[in-house]
Design a protein that fits this description.
Layout lengths: L1 E6 L3 H14 L4 E6 L6 H13 L4 E3 L5 H8 L10 H18 L5 E4 L7 H10 L4 E3 L10 H10 L6 H4 L16 H10 L1 H18 L9 E3 L2 E6 L2 E6 L2 E3 L1 H9 L22 H8 L1
Helix pairs in contact: 1-6, 3-4, 4-11, 8-9
Length: 283
């Protein structure tokens, strides 16, 4: 049996790779990374270190970054609410590689999901059928998120800026389109160049695809606004698109309520269709 570890650049998949190698030997493991070309430089340094201490990582890329995907598709999110770029650059690329290089009889898929995520593990396993799936971090010794990060650093992996900033995931350089206002505010504070890139690409996207129509935006304003109902003024919560440009204006004018952003992002699990069904759709 061979073991395919889907490397995300996160501490979970990094440690899962090491547990897989320890349990089954280096020669029986394939390390596969699907690149969004939007990652933080620290993530690529992590992959370089993995190349040196384990084995070369198989890197999959079609050359596009997330905004190139959005621009090609004319949408940012799928009808189910998943990130369109994650579907194209992560899900489909890994599924295509597995389809071309593996079979359920000889290969097992390995994830970095840990023991506190039973629902996510179940969804992940279901979507990889008919392949068997193993979740090494769901087995003893059980580790917290902080312990997983610490273990990765003990193995010599470089510290990841996003973890140092207490972001929940090491994906897309912190510019996850499924993240909320709080995380995008942190990105504005801590990585203005990256924020400005997303702001400009969002502006270009809407100028091209949504001119004169309701924009497609990364963020949404869900604040409660005064509304007259039966002659009474009440606060009614509405959901309206908010461009990153408008978001920045509201930050500068201190006109926005920002919450703690340390919550899970569903990038790799938002699309519930199986990986192989996604390939059939694209064919």
């Amino acid at each position: 049996m061979r073991y395919i570890v889907s490397i995300s650049g996160g501490a979970g998949s990094t440690l899962a790779a090491h547990r897989t190698v320890k349990a089954h030997g280096l020669d029986s493991v394939d390390l596969v990374f699907a690149d969004t070309n939007t990652e933080h430089p620290d993530l690529y340094r992590l992959l370089d270190h993995m190349d040196k201490i384990l084995k070369p990582v198989i890197c999959l890329s079609d050359g596009r970054d997330i905004w190139d995907v959005f621009d090609d598709a004319g949408i940012i999110r799928t009808p189910t609410g998943a990130c369109k770029a994650s579907v194209e650059l992560k899900h489909k690329q890994i599924a295509r590689w597995v389809k071309d290089n593996a079979s359920p009889e000889t290969h097992m898929i390995v994830s970095g999901l840990e023991y506190t995520e039973p629902e996510r593990r179940e969804r992940f396993s279901k979507r990889w059928g008919p392949f068997q799936v193993w979740h090494p971090l769901a087995d003893p010794p059980y580790l917290s998120d902080c312990q997983i990060i610490a273990e990765a650093e003990k193995l010599g992996y470089p510290k990841q800026a996003l973890y140092e900033r207490r972001y929940p995931h090491n994906n897309c350089g912190g510019g996850c389109i499924l993240a909320g206002l709080g995380q995008w505010h942190a990105l504005w504070l801590e990585d203005r160049e990256r924020f400005n890139y997303h702001k400009e690409r969002e502006r270009q996207f809407n100028a091209k695809h949504r001119k004169g129509r309701r924009p497609f935006t990364v963020l949404r304003d869900q604040s409660a606004k005064p509304t007259i109902v039966d002659g009474e003024i009440v606060l009614k919560r509405t959901v309206t698109p908010m461009t990153l440009e408008r978001f920045e204006e509201r930050i500068l004018s201190n006109d926005i309520d920002l919450q703690d952003f340390r919550s899970a992002c569903g990038c790799m699990l938002g699309e519930q269709t199986s990986f192989f069904d996604l390939l059939e759709r694209a064919a």
